[in-house]
Amino acid sequence: MPKKKKRSIAKDELKKFGKKLADDIKRGKNPEITLPVRALSNIIFDKKECKLVLGENVAKRYFFNVAHAKRFLQTVEIASICKRLIDENKHASLRDVFYMAKRTIPKTKINIVDQQSESDKAIEDLELITNCSREMLHVTANKNGSVAGNVIIEDRGDRIDWSKLGSGGWSIPSVTDEIEFKKVKAKYVLYMEKAAVWERLHEDRFWEKNKCIIMSSMGQTTRGIRRLLQRLYEEFDLPIYVLVDNDPWGIYIYSVIKYGSISLAHISGKLAIPGVKFLGISADDIEKYGLQRHFIKFTDKDINRLKQISQYAWFKNNKAWQRQFKKMKQNGAKVEIQALSSKGISFISEKYLPEKIKSKDFLD
Amino acid sequence: MPKKKKRSIAKDELKKFGKKLADDIKRGKNPEITLPVRALSNIIFDKKECKLVLGENVAKRYFFNVAHAKRFLQTVEIASICKRLIDENKHASLRDVFYMAKRTIPKTKINIVDQQSESDKAIEDLELITNCSREMLHVTANKNGSVAGNVIIEDRGDRIDWSKLGSGGWSIPSVTDEIEFKKVKAKYVLYMEKAAVWERLHEDRFWEKNKCIIMSSMGQTTRGIRRLLQRLYEEFDLPIYVLVDNDPWGIYIYSVIKYGSISLAHISGKLAIPGVKFLGISADDIEKYGLQRHFIKFTDKDINRLKQISQYAWFKNNKAWQRQFKKMKQNGAKVEIQALSSKGISFISEKYLPEKIKSKDFLD
């Protein structure tokens, strides 16, 4: 069973980590942890693999070093919490782990962690040390999003048919590594940033008529969704199309799914999906479908973000994207997916999406 | 079928509204709309019914009145959009309706609506005019939240078993009026504001061990969830317990579910659930379970909000609640649900919740 296997991999890695430290101590050595530097200076855009990865700079953290001791202790404490979670076969949220680690160091008045950011960082360190994702360490983040399609999965012993869940759909959990796909009948996956658009497409039974899977979250894509998209892409060779607002925030959502994010560069391999395509809303769609009358003026924040994104390594030399950014700058305004509703409530499912997909009008 | 009936009720009401205006015109009368005033001055806390309702002040809106003409037109336009949605048996989100209404008045350069707030208000007016909820008018808002329990429903022709949906659960749609309950085996419903807590309880199969239904959203409770809670309360006589952080925002979540909200006072009858109980986290829980060490200091905003809430009509003369507010003020800090995790990952499901529920330690 792959489920069991993953658990034992993470457990073995945690044991290895503990044993290494115990050996240091037995040998009278200053216990040390070696791990890649996670500063911006050590984050590289791997052109061949087409994703953000960590460079080769490593740092050592020592127990007997005033500057290192606390983070050292935090890392070991979190490792012990993860080990316990895996042993008990339970999952904890990042917030839970923070509270579990927030205890006073015996005979002092100092807490092991005071802020969640400290335990979060320790978990990221552990991902690097063990080469296991946070999910494999049994730590979860927010759950969000729904999915529908002609797919049958098995999860915690339940057989779930994504095509037979009424108007709601399946609520995507925070950990999607452990679900088993039993039947996947789809030609592609359509991911959108808005739950309301998902409800529109679901009511129109878009997934049935177009033989696809529809998936959404609200705003930022959760790691659970990213892993689910990646698994469908890798295990079933399904193209992934992303539908977002025409604004820098929408494009960043696409960018994170495709290339990974700066803050999670250390785990890009487990999350980035280089084959993902941007379906819309593109600057050309705005012209083609006459959506200019639904412009919402950019704020200064939008304009700055657009500039930042256009300079990202993976967009900088991409002519098609630079053309988009230029047009967006000229527009000086965003257009939302729902602006398509001005052309009819089901225009999106009956015309816009089928046209775009048939003519393969994507950005890469 | 209740589904069809609801559709025809809303349609009949919309037709009645249109006919009344057409009659005004035929008779050479200035077309008028009469509706209750929705200002704070006309919002009353109905002590007997125990919910926020509108008072008896009404206002008239005339077509031939420069100050009224635009809102008059907006109301009629939105009514026509709703009629079309019902005819086509499709649902649109608030944002969709805005884009559908956002068109230029022929021979002018004036848009019918420029901001979503305008179409939103027109929809609220229509709820009053037709006495039908927004959902009955086929307009939806955000979808959010998950549910699990020993319940079987039928929705859009699918039979869905809430006990067999793996780690994800059923994703709660924005309209829950139309689902049919086929089997409900539960002693109560536990609603929590945090998806991560829901995942914890679901992993522990809390709903199975304690014969209940667990439901969550993220932050604010959607109308879809409020209607679902209300239906389970009214149709199956199930007690509803609310689990939120010990801070003014958590208490307001409880307050809205129980009494309705000021902005939606006109629809309280369809949404408020006077029998709802506050399960926790109470100020007493903080003492009983020694959660003081997990205090997160109030900001000025928190303190002001606490003061506001403590003066609401439905809390003002409630001694038990005033005692809570006093303690919260003394604490000057909030405590999150997840602080319970400091006592063990499953402390919440194995000890805290069973103890509270067994001893009926609720606030009313």
Topology of helices and strands:
The structure is a homodimer of 364-residue chains.
Chain A: H1 2-26, E1 32-36, E2 43-46, E3 51-54, E4 58-62, H2 69-88, E5 92-93, H3 94-101, H4 116-130, E6 139-140, E7 146-149, E8 151-155, E9 158-161, E10 170-171, E11 180-184, E12 188-192, H5 195-203, H6 206-209, E13 212-216, H7 223-236, E14 240-243, H8 248-259, H9 268-271, E15 277-280, H10 283-288, E16 296-297, H11 300-310, H12 313-316, H13 319-331, E17 333-334, H14 347-358
Helix pairs in contact in A: 1-2, 2-4, 3-4, 8-11, 11-13
Task: Describe the model.
- Two copies of one chain form a homodimer.
- In chain A, a hairpin with a 4-residue loop joins strand 2 (43-46) and strand 3.
- In chain A, helix 2 (69-88) crosses helix 4 (116-130) and helix 8 (248-259) runs parallel beside helix 11.
- The first copy, chain A, is globular.
- With 364 residues, chain A is α/β, with parallel strands linked by helices.
- Chain A has helices spanning 2-26, 69-88, 94-101, 116-130, 195-203, 206-209, 223-236, 248-259, 268-271, 283-288, 300-310, 313-316, 319-331, 347-358; strands at 32-36, 43-46, 51-54, 58-62, 92-93, 139-140, 146-149, 151-155, 158-161, 170-171, 180-184, 188-192, 212-216, 240-243, 277-280, 296-297, 333-334.
- Chain A folds into two domains: 2-30 and 65-140, Arc Repressor Mutant, subunit A, CATH 1.10.10.10; 146-358, Dna Topoisomerase Vi A Subunit, Chain: A, domain 2 (3-Layer(aba) Sandwich).
- At the A-B interface, helix 2, strand 5, helix 3, strand 8 and strand 9 of A face strand 5, helix 3, strand 8, strand 9 and strand 10 of B.
